[in-house]
Specification:
mainly alpha
């Protein structure tokens, strides 16, 4: 599940970046149209640019959402691992390892 989420996050980030790279090209077309005085394509270009901004924003949001989900999952796994390790160490101490007659160095070796 996590590898698939990570792949989705990377894919959406890549797609968003590719769309963002087309925005300067669209502005260049807009400037060319203004210089030539041919504004017949302006409504199509405007709607297309608005669509690109919208798709890019949605992909950015999705990428951020998946990245946050993965970060929270990693933190939760680390917290569980830490609690298991601490519980194991405290159980060893509560079972009387200090009173078992072994040397202090023997506790470190186990």
């Amino acid at each position: 599940m996590h590898m698939m989420s990570q792949a989705k996050s990377i894919t959406s980030l890549f797609a968003s970046s590719m769309i963002s790279l087309t925005i300067p090209m669209a502005f260049g077309k807009l400037v060319d149209m203004a210089v030539k005085g041919d504004m017949s394509q302006l409504p199509i270009l405007t709607v297309g640019m608005a669509g690109l901004f919208g798709i890019s924003a949605l992909l950015d949001y999705y990428s951020d959402y998946i990245s946050d989900y993965l970060a929270h999952t990693i933190i939760r796994i680390a917290a569980v691992a830490q609690s298991v390790i601490l519980r194991k160490n405290s159980q060893q101490h509560l079972q009387g390892d200090f009173e078992s007659g072994r040397e202090v160095g023997a506790l470190v070796e186990t």
